Amino acid sequence: MTDLMATYAHEEMKTNARYRWLGELPQWRVRQVLSLCRACVVSSKMEGGANVLSEAVVAGVPLLASRIPGNVGILGDDYPGYFKIGDTGGLAQLLLRAETDARFLKSLRQHCANLAPLFKPSREKAAWASLLRELFQPGKDRES
Predict the structure, then answer these.
(1) In the chain, where the domains are located
(2) Using CA atoms, how far apart are residues 1 and 109, in angstroms rounded to an integer?
(3) Angle at CA 68, nearest 5°, toward 112 and 26?
(4) CATH H-level, domain 38-134: superfamily
(5) What is the pLDDT of residues 87-142, one digit of tens each?
(6) Suppose 65 and one of 48, 71, 105, 144 were both cysteines; which one would form an S-S bond, judging by CB atoms 3.0 to 4.6 Å apart?
(7) Are 53 and 75 in contact (CB under 8 A)?
């Protein structure tokens, strides 16, 4: 975070009781804070797949996310909590809906719960091992 961004964050905290910038935190503390959240916003404009997505899914925290390839690749095309990149009005509507529509929030939680098994360390290790076996199998004919 740049000094200018930090200044903006501090100014926002002065005028917005719902905003709190915590700064850089160790991973265990991030998980602790995330587990206490009712929802998580990922407003990236460009990202390959934010770690916070998988952390939130595993923690059972519903996500409101910009519709970018990295987020769609993790959450799926049919995830109901997307908003257009830079559409603060759309994000505001989703936030209000998540706060006032229990069925919508439940649908976000359920979608994340369905994805959670994909992030088990044992599954990820097995997938990596399978990929490496496939790539380095002796005598296997591969196209370049």
Answers:
(1) 1-36, 38-134
(2) 30
(3) 60
(4) Glycogen Phosphorylase B; (3.40.50.2000)
(5) 999 999 999 999 999 999 999 999 999 999 988 889 889 988 999 998 988 666 65
(6) 71
(7) yes
